[in-house]
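Escalated from tier 1: guanosine-5'-monophosphate holo job.
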Amino acid sequence: MTDPTVRADPAAGIPVPARLTVLSGPSGVGKSTVVQAIRRHCPEVWLSVSITTRRPRPGEVHGREYFFVTERQFSEMAGAGQLLEWARFAGNYYGTPSAPVAEKLRAGLPTLLEIDVAGARQIRQSIPGALLVFLAPPSWDELVRRLTARETEPAEVIRRRLEAAEAELRAGTEFDITLVNTSVDEVCSQLVALMTAQPATPVSSAK
Ligand code: 5GP
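Tier 2 regenerated the structure:
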């Protein structure tokens, strides 16, 4: 029987493995900007859409950036084992629905999760073959500047995100690779190159 994580590349006639990559790093480092650029320019990459209990920011669309859910809906999904990982971040819950990830990996699509460090650690445990990529800021001062420039967040939320960012920066050594976010275009092409060079993720471990 053929390996379900491998699909044939009709052009080259060679198998192309499905890949699971995790993009993580401190809040404010620019993960979502990188993800937006991938959404626009790299249709070959499938981006997982998380559920969250936080409120939508202006311009965010339900089902695109996130599925916005209530705490009750979140805990029902978590309790039913429907999340591949989940974490509480700056007062809200975030989680990755498992079924779409397993489905896309089975279909052979390079799959990207943009999640926090706590979530990345859970993926490391449950799917050891996943590639963990850490996005680092050019400097701590630059990260503070980016976080405090976010006028959509109240001061208390920014303070909590800065606290979390300090701890998250220290976690960089746990990752397979670090990319420094000096240019969004560069990070995107490095990330896509990594995703297409990575060995297959066994679907059986992606619940
Ligand atoms: P934001 O509220 O700025 O969109 O996201 C806050 C943090 O939650 C970011 O670090 C983001 O990567 C992380 N995050 C988003 N979705 C998920 C998820 O499904 N699981 C986990 N663990 N973290 C997530």
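Residues 1-17 have pLDDT under 50 and may be disordered.
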